[in-house]
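Summary of Year 1 activities. Much of the first year was spent building the evaluation harness for sequence design. The harness presents a backbone, in tokenized form, and records the residue chosen at every position. We chose the following record to illustrate the format because it has been used consistently in internal testing since the harness was completed.
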């Protein structure tokens, strides 16, 4: 019996080209799947009332106009609500990450019963739905006189984001070689200096990823903001969007789509800006490590 003949270089090259084309095709289909809701939302925001009420909606607006955007700004204080959301999301993200860094370092480097309890707390806290904690949370904030305040909502978001921030940063800290910390200790650096001068620069990818997660989570959160904020001047963007719904649940679709596009832009801009730093931080960390 003779063995099977090996494939020729031309066949190997063709298989590689076909495999690469298949991967790019699958990636393209996935990107279209992810981008379609946003593209449809943008298209809807430029459609007229006649097009929005049509039984056969078109992919693109036939007569694009900014009327829905003007109507959205006239109907609701979108800029003020966006500013509230920006302050809440940015502050909550920065505070939660700044709090999580030393805590995650202690849990990753000092394995004890306290760190194991902390890990269990992280996992258990992510299993509780919002509805189970809203009543005790409301009572606690009421006793602290923080109901209907931006500061109270920031505290809630910091506490809610902290477990996942700890979980993410632990993994990045464990990836930092201990030999770097031992070398810093030989040179006389203490724990805090080692964390700030050695470990923290190598955590750039983890810090950026955690910041993005915390910011987007706080920006998009709706339930806590709806329950805890009552004054119109304190309401965030996610709550103001509900004002485009009528008393009978009929949505003012055009202005709602326009306001939703405006509410989506800050998250996209924030992600686009930090994504460059994320890639740069990954490369810098790889070189330093």
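For this record, the design step produced the sequence shown next.
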């Amino acid at each position: 019996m003779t063995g099977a003949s090996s494939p020729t270089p031309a066949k190997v090259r063709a298989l590689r080209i076909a495999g690469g084309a298949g991967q790019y095709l699958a990636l393209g289909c996935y990107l279209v799947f992810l981008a379609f809701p946003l593209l449809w939302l943008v298209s809807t925001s430029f459609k007229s009332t006649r097009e929005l009420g049509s039984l056969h909606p078109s992919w693109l607006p036939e007569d694009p106009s900014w009327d829905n955007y003007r109507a959205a700004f006239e109907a609701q204080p979108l800029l003020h609500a966006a500013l509230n959301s920006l302050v809440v999301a940015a502050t909550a993200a920065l505070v939660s990450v700044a709090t999580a860094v030393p805590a995650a370092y202690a849990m990753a480097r000092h394995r004890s019963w306290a760190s194991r309890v902390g890990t269990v707390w992280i996992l258990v806290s992510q299993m509780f739905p919002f509805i189970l904690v809203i009543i005790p949370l409301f009572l606690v904030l009421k006793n602290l006189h923080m109901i209907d305040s931006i500061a109270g909502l920031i505290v809630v978001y910091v506490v809610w984001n902290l477990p996942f921030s700890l979980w993410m940063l632990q993994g990045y800290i464990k990836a930092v070689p201990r030999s770097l910390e031992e070398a810093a200790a030989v040179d006389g650096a203490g724990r805090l200096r080692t964390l700030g001068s050695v470990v923290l620069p190598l955590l750039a990818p983890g810090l950026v990823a955690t910041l993005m997660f915390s910011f987007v989570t706080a920006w998009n959160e709706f339930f806590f903001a709806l329950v805890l904020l009552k004054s119109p001047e304190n309401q965030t963007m996610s709550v103001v969007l509900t004002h485009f719904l009528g008393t009978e649940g009929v949505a003012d679709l055009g202005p709602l789509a326009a306001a939703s596009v405006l509410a989506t832009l800050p998250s996209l801009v924030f992600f686009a800006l930090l994504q460059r730093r994320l890639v740069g931080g990954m490369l810098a960390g790889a070189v330093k490590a």
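The CA atoms of residues 135 and 227 lie 10 Å apart. Quantitative recovery figures across the full test set are reported in Table 2.
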